[in-house]
Structure formats: C-alpha cells, structure tokens
Amino acid sequence: MSLSKEQVQHIAALACLQLDEDEFDDIVAKLSSIVDFVDQLQQVPTDDVVPMAHPLDQVQRLRPDVVTETNERDAFQANAPAIQDGFYLVPKVIE
Amino acid sequence: MAGQQQALHTQSLAELAKGLSKGEFSSRELIETLLSRIEEHDRSLNAFISVTADQALAVADASDKARSKGEAGTLAGLPIVYKDIFCTKGVLTTCGSRILENFVSPYDATVVERLSSAGAVMLGKTNMDEFAMGSSSETSYFGPVRNPWDTARSPGGSSGGSAAAVAARLTPAGTGTDTGGSIRQPAALTNTVGLKPTYGRVSRYGMVAFASSLDQAGVITRTAEDAAMLLSVMAGFDERDSTSVDHPVPDYVSGLTVSLKELKIGVVRQHFDAGLNEQCAARVKDALNVLEQQGASLIEVDLPNLDLSVPTYYVVAPAECSSNLSRFDGVRFGYRADGAKDLLDLYCRSRGDGFGAEVKRRIMTGTYVLSAGYYDAYYLKAQKVRQLISQDFKNAFEKVDVIAGPTTPTPTFPLGEKTDDPITMYLNDIYTIGANLAGLPGISVPCGFVDDLPVGLQLVGPHFAEETILACAHQYQQLTDWHQRCPEAYQ
Amino acid sequence: MNSAWEVVIGLELHTQLATSSKIFSGASTAYGAEPNTQACLVDLGYPGVLPVLNAEVVRMACKFGLAINAKVASRCVFARKNYFYPDLPKGYQISQYELPIVYDGELMIKDDRGEDKRIGITRAHLEEDAGKSIHEGLNQSSGIDLNRAGTPLLEIVSEPDMRSAKEAVAFMRKIHSIVRYLEISDGNMQEGSFRCDANVSVRPHGQEKLGTRSELKNLNSFRFVEKAINFEIKRQINILEDGGEVAQETRLYDSDRDETRSMRSKEEANDYRYFPDPDLLPVVLDDAFIAEVKKTLPELPDAKQARFVEQYALKPSDAAILTVSRAVADYFEATVAEFKDNPKTAANWITGELSAALNRDGMEITDSKIAPADLAALLSRIQDGTISGKIAKEVFEAMWTGGGGANEIIETRGLRQITDSSAIEKIVDAVIAANPDQVKQYRAGKVKVLGFFVGQVMKETGGKANPGQVNEVLKRRLRKG
User: Fold this and answer.
1) In this predicted model, what pLDDT tens digit does every residue of B409-427 receive, in sequence order?
2) What pTM did the predictor assign?
3) Which of A67, A87, A95 sits opposite C138 (nearest CB)?
4) Is B63 a catalytic residue?
C-alpha cells in the first residue's frame, strides 16, 4: 500500500522532521515499500492473542520517596546551545 | 617458551589478565601497544570515533600501581572499547550521529561504571550505525566502518566499530548493543564472538535508547571465555533501570566447562531454506556435527513464525525509537540549527539536519504505525505477532536446551550494496531478531569461512541461560581454531 | 438561565501530589527553587536515562481512589503521550491511557436546589507534570525552566454530570477538600498544585446527544471557574440561538476581561500516538497493598460532617464549614475536648473571630497564635460568667497579639464581669437619675431607649457589667415610678 505525499508530509509534521525536496520523493518511495513489507502481518490470525509489550513477565518496581539528586545545573547546562539566567532559551513562543 | 610471549595484541582478555597478574608486562605496556596499533590501523577501518589515549594511559598507570599494592580489581588494567552509544562521563558520546556530534556526556552508563570499577581501561568509543539503526555500520555520520577481512566490505552493524576493532586486534574486547542482532551479526561477519544477554540481564541505564523493549548491552570478544569474564562484571540488577531484572549473577567463567553430553540442541527447520547461502549452511552443519561429537544431540525444532520476525521487528522497533528520539530537539543539548525563526522551525530543521536518512525513515515508520487509525492494524498487531514468536521459542525450549543455527544468511557484503533498498538490508537480521523479540540470550561464535569471509554459528537459549550458551561456545572453541584466525593486514 | 438549554459540564482536575521527590526521578519537588536547579538528568530527558516509579505516588493515588469509592486497578500501565513542546523535554509525557490506576468513582455534592447529587468520576490517573516557560525578560526568546518537569500529577476526570457552574465549583471544592484531607496534595492553586480545566457544552433540553464542547483552561481559582463557565454558557447559547455552530476548541479564561478566548492551540491537530511506555512495566497492586493503604484513610469530610452534627449537635451548615479543612475540624475538636459545654459557641468563635484573625494575618489555622486549649479556656470564662461575650473579644485580641492565657489577661486588666446586683443597681440608679428625658421617653412607650441606658451603664462599668443583669435591673427600675 503506497503512501501518498500528503500522508508523508503529515507524518513528517508529527515527527517534527524537515525533509528537503530531494529527499522527499525518496522517502515516500522507501516508506511505501516498508509499509508494504510490514503489511504481511495483517494476514496473521491473532484472535485471543495477548499483545506482548515486554519480553519477560515483569512487574514495575517501586522506589522509595527520597530526594537523591542534588543541583548539578552547571554540569548539565554545559551542553546547552542557548541559556540565560539558568533558563534554556528557545525562539519566543506565543500562547 | 621462556622469554617468548605471544604478542600482546593477539592475546585474549583471559590471557592478558594472567600475564598482568604474573607481572609479565604492565598495563601501560599493553595499553601503549594497542594505542599505537589503533593509530596505525584505524585509518583503514574507521572503527573509532574517539580515542581516549591520555585517559587510558592514566588509568593503566593507576591500575599498575594498584596491582603493586595488591588492590587490583577483576579487570584491572585490561583494555576495552565502548560502542559510542554508551554514555561516558566527560567523553564525547555521539551515537554515530550529527545531532550528538559535540555531546559530552555528564555521566557514565551503568555498564561503563561497572567495567571501570573493575579496573578496565577505556581505549575509546567505537563507530556504529547512527543510533544503532542499521546492519552494516554505513549510516554513521562519521563515515562507514570497514571490515578488516576485506576493507571494501561491511563489518555488519550496528556495532561494527567494536567488531572491527576486536577482529583487527586493536582491542581484545568491546561493548555493543543488540536490538535486532547488532552484536551477533557483526560478530559473525568479522570472525569474532558476540554475546547478547537476556533482556534485563544488563542495565540499560546510560545506553542511549533505540527500542526500549528490545535493546540489550553485550560484548564482542574473540573468545567465549572473555565474554563470560565481562558479563560477570556487567550483569546484575540496577535500580536505575526499571526493566533490569533482579536475578542472581553466577560466575559465568566457572560455568564454561560444564559437560555438553546431555545437551539437546535444536536445529530449526525454517533456518535451512532458500534464503540461507548454501556454503554458510554447510559451515553451520559442520559446527553442529562438532557439538554432536561431544555428546550433544541434535533435535529438529520448528519456529513456524520465523518469517514474521523481520516485519514484526520493523513495526515495534521504529515505533519505540520514534518516541525515544523525540528528546533530540536542539533545546537542551545536541545540534541546533542556526537562525531558527520560530519554535517549529527550530525543531524541524535541527532534527531534519541532525538525523541521517535511515534514522529519519525509522522515525517516520514508527510515527506512522502509532498514528491514529493505524495503531491497531500495525503496532498492536505486531505486539500480538511478537507474542506468537515468543511462544514458538517457548515451545521449542520444551524439547531442547539451546537452539543453534546460522547467525546470518550470507557472509558480509560490499559497502554500498544494500543501502538502496531498506528491505534487503533488514533481511540480514532474519535469524537474530527472534531472540530480541522474545528477550532471549544469544551468542555468535566463528565457525568457518566462505570465500575467505567469516561465518558465524548462533546459539540461543531460554531466559537467563547465558551459562549454557557460553559453555557451548567455549567448548566449541576448544575444539576449533576459527576464532584464532586474523586478517593478514592486521596480524 | 434560559431554560430551553441544558448545560453539560465535565471537569478535569490536575492535582500535584505532595511527595518529596518526583514521580520518575529522585529530584526534589520543592516549590520556588532557582530555574533548573531541581531538574536532574531524568527530568531533562537526557540520552540514556530511564524512569523509576515513586512508591508514595502509587499509595497516594490508591488512597484517593478509596476515598472516592472508586476501583483501584490491580494492574495499570503507563503510556507515552507524544507531542513536541519545549517544556516537555522527552517529547512525550509519561501518562496513563487505557489502564488508569483508579476508575469508576463518585462523590456527592449539593445541587442548585441544595439536594444531594451524585457526580461520577470516570477515572483518576497518574502522569508527570511538564516544566514552565517564561516569555518576558529574555530578549526575543522564551525561557524554559524544568524544575517542575516530572512532578507527580493525579488527573481526575469527572463524568459530564454537572449542570451549572455552581455545581462544577461545588464538585471542585469537594475534591479540593478531599485531597487535602488525605494529605496527598496541598491544593495550592496560586502555586499551581491544583488546576482545573472545564469542558462545557449546551444542548436543547431533552436532547440526548451532547452539544459540541469547548475546553476552558487556565482556571486557577474557584471564583474564576464559576465566572468562566458562566461566560462560556452564555457565549455558546448566543451562538446557537443565532443559528451558528459552536467550534470544538480550547479557550483560555481572561480574568481581567471576564471572558474566554480561543487559544491558538498547540494541540489542535495533535495525534498523541499513545502506546505503553516500554521503559516502565505494568504496576501490579495486590489486595494486601490496597488494604494497607485503606488503613491510612482518615475520616473523610462527609463522614466527619455527619458525625459533628450528631456528636456536637451542630447545624449541618456549621458542620460543613468546620469540615472543609481537616485542620479546622481538628482544631474544633481539640477545643471542644477542653470546652465541652457548648460546641456551638466553639464553632461560632472558630468560624468568626479566629477565622477573621487568621485571614487578617494571612495564616493557616495550624499556625494559629491561639491554641485550641487556650481558646477553650476563654470560652469557659464566658460560659461561667466571668466575662461577657463582648469583653471576651477584647481578651481574644490581647491573646492573639500579645500572647498569654485568658485567665491571666482577665485578671491583669481587671476585666471580670460585674455581677454583684447591688453594685449594678447602684450604677443603674445613677444612670437613670442622670437621664430624666430618656426615662420619660421610655415610660411613654419608646422601648428602644433601653438600649441607650444599657450603653450608659456599660460605659460606666467599662463594659464589664453583666449585660443580662443590667437589662433586668434597668427594666425593673424603669418600671417604677
């Protein structure tokens, strides 16, 4: 099942990925072939089969409510592209 | 014998550990040897993204000192390389991506912490498919890795850098990650041993996530014994990883010599079909015979849904990665596009420029299969098929103790050959993916050559049966010498 | 309200759970820290880090479920809600989707006619809070502070059972009271630990199909919730009566203008692509766990209110006021434990004088400058006639500002009530003698003038004469002659 250009544009928007014009057609083609490939799963009978989210039968462990982290802002912000007064900066957002 | 020691770069970790403890050489000597080999040979392989020479020598010196005081840890002074997907404090951690090109991690992954605490010396960070997405180590922003057996060919992926480095004797051991085969497949294609433990056996904390329910940290070495040594240190419960299993860690090394006499080895009917290169099939059958001669019995088993593992994986893994990679947005770390006019522009261009084509394809695939109207048909469906595939293994393990077969359908392929069609590339993982979907431990061990290119035998066990597959691989290596062969240019 | 239209309201309340550390990391949740000083690697969504669930968060959610008579899921799952926004570092929020921890609950409110009404609570689920952004003071940029990212939230979703803004506020107040009773949240709306979104729609009376709803956000006080909903109802009715259609959208409430405005929505076209978070495992709660939590349930507001009416013979409305806050209810009971004679008086003083003093000084009752035992002592002195009610207010002020017990202050300031009949008679006679005109007026039938005489006697006695006796003596004396 081929994907339309609009579908691919929509997916790219959801994923916040800018695609150049030259990559776009290639992506439409390759994604379509991938979707075609995985479509074969539709034929598999799976009534009454429980979806497997984790390979082992594990249960979530609970952690005690204790503060264990200290302030390491400087170390963590060393990788930040733009900071000021301790804030991470982004282009102005209008709400 | 006396005064004639085997060249340091050809020795296994176990041999080096003995040598160090006997004082035959110092860790500094060893590390210097390997660092100069890296400098000489890596240009032909591109296996490394970072080489941490100064740090390595400092740690080597420290371990020599500690050893002289009798305070050496189990891996003291022994070299290791880390796939560049493991966070290493103060050291560049790129995941083979432009988006993390300048990212210096402020913390160590648990795997790194444990190996360092035991005294291991980090030589550097190895090259890989970008964000572990690939089976050829060609999607790295830092250029492809080359196979030491034929530098025009791929070493496999995504842990190709670690595999190439071990195969070329630039290091005796390296860590890798395996989500669909990314440790076992490159090991098979480079004549090395690659171990993927049971899901949850080794902590994922600090290992940049690709597909959270499939990823596992493991090792690439030349011997199963070395893999056992490393696993003993790496494995174990970590409270920082919710998916980490609190299961006791045995001494994997002492378990290596367990008798294979009663062992039931499953041979999968579906493995030996048209998709498997005939000569590879022959090497694998020879290997199975060797094991049979040790008293193991070969029993045919079925994995009826084997063919579905690749499409299942290529729904589940992209879905999880599409979400895992959303944190790379140019806001708090990583690549940020210049002159963004608004927030959306910042996100879309930083990510559009920062991620390579394969990563973008997988994010898009994942976004698609999770999207409204498609979730049930794709993601939910794939999770159900995953259950079926796991059940196949459970059924097989009622009859046998391990499943053995080829690691890959063919030996390695030329760089650039499969990059045009993603599906062809994906089918490389047909034999390895099932173990990830079911969370099972698997190991690939060298079992011969086809047209002078290495072939691997894969052993897969039930959950927490690392001891069994390691023992099997180890004893196979006592009876064969494939793993001792080294590509001529790197001897 | 136009009776041709029926209003349908559902509320989504987000309450921050009062844990020490975050839901998935060990960073502190304390309010007011410098930007990004309480955001650890997990909160920042750094590569390679993983979430681990806080046990106290689970207990608190379970407690809430039990308090609203809901089912606590024996197995619940965390899901990722995927969208991009700078205050959401991972690009997804860890929340719960198909399998929430609590579902099928209810609580009772009083409807517009004062009758009991049941409001259903569809579910309550756990999720992590996002960070905060500031849009001023940073040149042409917005600034992101992730201290709040990862703070545990309990999202409480009601059935669309409310039919007026008043009912909505009553529901919200009830939930607010419960979460504070359970000590799972401080419910501080100014600090953002208790937030309300309202879904409002209208439909013609009798129509079963729901009208298009709009979602109101940014409602951070009970008052604003009521005003915003009322504005929205009128707005929607106007549109529909003009033959138009209500747009399904998110609207912000502007309290300065008292109107709702369409938000340039970040979420309009969003497909959240929910799926179970693979870094977290299903949370399994067995009966033993739930039983342990049940043991920690305090007496809840409704039960306490009913008991107060029964045990202390209070009016339901008085009992209701006293039980809105557990701290106030506890204070009342501590007072009444020492002052058993007249709970009604205690209630009056707590909701009256004490409340006024606390408001004036911006304090919570737990910081009250007068302890329950001391208030009890004061009330006892009124009860036994040592002082009058009026003088008691003076004593109260003195206790509040200067400290010290009631008895001390009464003695030191000589505030004992004058109850000696002959002393009162003497003063009454003097006042009567000094005001012949008023005496004439009174005897002529102007009964109200009695108040003047009482006032004069009080003036003479510095307010200390027993008012009852003064009245009685005055009447007697004025009758004569």
Assistant:
1) 999 999 998 777 888 888 8
2) 0.92
3) A87
4) no
Q: What average pLDDT does chain B have? A: 96
Phi, psi at residue B168, to the nearest 5°? -90, 10
Query: Phi first, then psi: what are they for C283, rounded to 5°?
Result: -90, 120
Confidence at residue B122, expressed as pLDDT on a 0 to 100 scale: 98
Question: Over 70: is that where the pLDDT of C285 sits?
Answer: yes
Mean pLDDT of B201-213: 98
Q: What does the pLDDT read at residue C420?
A: 84
Whether the per-residue pLDDT at B3 is higher than 80: the answer is no
Q: Cβ contact (<8 Å) for A11 and B199?
A: no
Q: pLDDT by residue (tens digit) across C313-327? A: 999 999 999 999 999
User: Is the pLDDT assigned to residue C264 strictly greater than 90?
Assistant: no
What span, in angstroms and rounded, lies between the C-alpha atoms of B355 and B341? 20
Q: Is A64 an interface residue toward C (CB < 8 Å)? A: yes
What number is the average pLDDT over the span A49-69? 96
**Domain map of chain A by residue range?**
5-42
Q: Identify the CA nearest to C184 among candidates C61, C77, C284.
A: C61
Instruction: Determine which of C57, C279, C281, C283 to mutate to test the interface with B (most B C-beta atoms within 10 Å).
Output: C279
> In this predicted model, what pLDDT tens digit does every residue of B97-129 receive, in sequence order?
999 999 999 999 999 999 999 999 999 999 999
Q: Which of B322, B352, B421 has its CB closest to that of A18?
A: B352
Tell me the average pLDDT of chain C: 93
Q: What is the ipTM of this complex?
A: 0.96
β-strand partners of B300: B267
* List B135, B182, B322, B444, catalytic entry: B182
DSSP-derived letter for residue C142 is: E
pLDDT of residue C421: 82
Is B104 in CB contact (< 8 Å) with chain A?
yes
Q: What are phi and psi of B218, to 5 degrees?
A: -155, -165
C298 in A contact zone (CB under 8 Å): no
**pLDDT score at B421:** 81
What is the token pair recorded at C358? 């606390």
Q: 3.40.50.300, 3.40.5.10, 3.40.47.10, 3.90.1300.10: which CATH number matches B8-248+255-305+391-490? A: 3.90.1300.10
Residue corresponding to tokens 């008895």 = C407
**Are A87 and C57 within 8 A, CB to CB?**
no
Identity of the residue in C56, C143, C280 whose CB atom sits nearest the CB atom of A65 = C56
CA distance A16 to chain B (A): 5
Q: What does the pLDDT read at residue B2?
A: 44
Reported as a pLDDT band with limits 50, 70 and 90, residue C266 is very low
Other chains touching C, judged by 3 or more CB pairs under 8 Å: A, B
The pLDDT of residue C479 is: 81
Comparing alpha-carbon positions, the chain B residue that sits nearest to C45 is B327
Taking residue B357's Cβ as centre, other Cβ atoms within 10 Å add up to 16
